[in-house]
Structures are given as structure tokens and as C-alpha cells.
Amino acid sequence: MQCRLCDSGRLTSVLDLGATPACESFLDAALLETPETTYPLHLRLCEQCLLLQIPALITPEDTFTEYAYFSSFSDSWVRHAEDFIETAVDRLGLGADSFVVEVASNDGYLLRHAVARGVPCLGIEPSVNVGAAARAAGVPTETTFLHEDSAARVRAEHGPADLVVANNVYAHIPDLRGFTRALRTLLSDDGWLSIEVHHALNLVRHGQFDTIYHEHFQYYTVYSAQRALAVGGLTVVDVELLDTHGGSLRLWARPDAVAEPGPRVAEVLDLERAAGLHTPAGYADLAPRAQSVRQELLRFLLDCRARGKRVVGYGAPGKGNTLLNYCGIRPDLLEYTVDRNPYKHGRYTPGTRIPIHPPERIDADRPDVVLVLPWNLETEITAQLRHVTEWGGELVYPLPVLHRAELETKVNR
Ligand SMILES: [Zn+2]
């Protein structure tokens, strides 16, 4: 086994989550009678360049050609995208003469805000069904994976981009070096690249082990991201810390020749260094933390079961499937879950085979406990589900430590 960034053979085990199915391979009823393929999910650290990574056992081509995730189903995510475009338009002075490219543009949740502001743009999205939804919403979108060939073709056809946006995709690419060179190809010589990716500082510090799944091939610190971007002749010039996905990085990078790193790059590197993440020893706490989340959650669910409480889930995100599979939670402990994405209704979670219903099912059933799987959206979901207290229900989040949502019950006295 070799590091995909630096080719070193010195990969050390950080967390072994066993073997699980692909996290977005939800099963329809007919598939329940067929075998299910599982893949080892084993996080390792390169001792040479400190890139956290899992082996590429499932290719993006397997995952993303027909994809179940539509970004527009999350209210907070759509708002986040609008804020980003507003900020980028101001910061970079984008207008009718500019050109913005988004890689993995999903259903156009972000670029529709560029279209609304009259900024020419192009989405690059591999999933046929998701890209079709973007075009229907008025966002020009090419159905292709980004690699060095498609990047050269887009540049020849549309010209270089003033801004390339790569949100929640830089972890999804096993050909990290080729993808990074492709990003550079899309970009003009004085352009800007903006990348959002989960911050491994939070993965380790808060034990967010369920952000590890087969679609995420690598997990970045600013330290390792700098080394990855350098492959494409790109330098990180600014870093923002975001709350999304339990704590993400927004990296701003520019071609080396025009790059002038600002103070925030060093500040975030200092945070990482203080947490020990610039040496292999700093990653040792992740495995015991994951084990402790598993044991706490199982103890809680078994206790609910013993007391005859009815427990259902909320959400069927990819991370939920890492959690459910690693913990071994099946319908005897979690009767069903619900999701706002109609694609998942009537299907079952991979591996654990928990049925997925529309959200209204919770209101009809009035369960005692709702276990929220997308814990990174706690504020949004707690607001949406406040009414479960009307029938005495509880909202419970599994991470960073098992806890009940703070729900103020308004009682008229
Ligand atoms: Zn390496």
C-alpha cells in the first residue's frame, strides 16, 4: 500500500471501522433478498506527508454516475451556498465578464446564485440524474468527471476561469494528483480556487469517525492540503474555518506565481500543530473515541429497548451508514428512519437494512425518541423537530458525545 500523494509506503493504522457497504447504496425491497458487497473501511496515515487516507476500493465512477444526494434538500446548505457566492462576488469583483466553474456542482444549488447575479458560470457534474436537475434549474452543466482531459477541453471551449469552486469534492477523488492538476488547468494564471472540505482537526478532536466512508478517500489538515495543492502549482493563500459538516475548511488557493499567503494560513497551521496533528502521534486518540461513542450509543438504545421505548431515526445521510454499521444498529434498536429526499423513501439503509420513510411518519407515530443521524445539522434539525416535545418525545444526537437536544418547552402558566 502506497500513499496516493507522496508514494511513501509508510502508512500507519489510525482507525479500523470493519467492513461496510458503500454508504449511498440504499437498497430497494427486491435487493433485500440479494447478497450485499462490503468493503474494508480502514483509515491510515502517511507518516511521510501526513495525509489521512483510505484505500480506493470503490471508484467515483461506481458511486456518482447515478447519485442519491441532492444538495438542495438541505435548507442550511442552500443558504450557505448563497452566502458564498455573495462573498465571492464582492471579494473577487466578479461580474458579467467573469467566468466561474464549479466542480461537482450537484443540482446547481450554488451556481444558481451566480446565474441570478448575471455571472457566467459552468457546472461540472458527473451524476447524470443530478446534472439534469441543474440544467432544468437554468444552470449550464456538463456531465463529466473532472480529470486532466476534461479540464483541458472545458478550458479550450470556455476559456480560463476567474474562480474555480470545488466544495465537498476534494476528498472524493482517488487520483488526487491528477485532479489537482486539472483544477489548475481550469484556472486563469491570476485566478482563485476555493475548496471546502471537512477539517481533519475536527475529525480527530471531536471523534467524528462517521465522516469516514468509502466516498471520502482522504481527510485534510491545512498541512496536508498544502502539500496536495502544491502538486498542481497552487499555494494556499487564505483559510476560513466553517461550521459545515461538523467543522470544515475553506481553502483559498492561487497559482504559485501570484500567491501571497495571508496571516490566517499560519494561524490555522498553529491550531493543528497545537493539537499534535503535524506528527503521527496526534492521531492516536481517534480509535478510542470512536469505540466510546459506539458503546455509549448501544447502551442507550438497549436501555430504551428494555424500557419499551419506541426509537426511530431522523435522516439517512452517508455518515449515518458508517455509524449504524460500525455500531451494529438494526431495526430491533432503530425501528426506521426518515429522510426528506424522496429517492430514499421505501428503500433501506445499506448493511443495516433499516427502512426509510418520509418525515411525516414521525408525526403520525409519535415515537418516544428520535435519534438524529445528521448531527452536524443540530441547530437546523432541532428547530424543525421541536414539536416532538408536544407528545413527550426526545431528540437525541449521537455525536460528539451522546446528548439530548436542548428543547425549551413553552408552558403557559
Ligand atoms: Zn504521503
From TrEMBL:
Identify the Gene3D superfamilies for this entry. Answer: 6.10.250.3100, Methyltransferase, zinc-binding domain, NAD(P)-binding Rossmann-like Domain, Vaccinia Virus protein VP39
Decide whether keyword Transferase is in the record.
yes
Question: Which is a GO BP term held by this UniProt record?
Answer: methylation
Please identify the protein, giving its name as recorded: Methyltransferase family protein
Under SUPFAM superfamilies, the record lists: S-adenosyl-L-methionine-dependent methyltransferases
Domain C-methyltransferase, by residue range, is: 244-400
Methyltransferase putative zinc binding domain boundaries: 3-64
Name the domain of life this protein comes from.
Bacteria
Q: Single GO molecular-function term?
A: methyltransferase activity
The record's section on InterPro entries has:
Methyltransf_Zn-bd_dom_put, Methyltransf_Zn-bd_dom_put_sf, MeTrfase_14, SAM-dependent_MTases_sf
The organism named in the record is Nocardia caishijiensis
List the taxonomic lineage.
Answer: Bacteria, Bacillati, Actinomycetota, Actinomycetes, Mycobacteriales
Keyword annotations for this protein, in alphabetical order, are: Methyltransferase, Transferase
> Where, if anywhere, are coiled coils annotated?
none
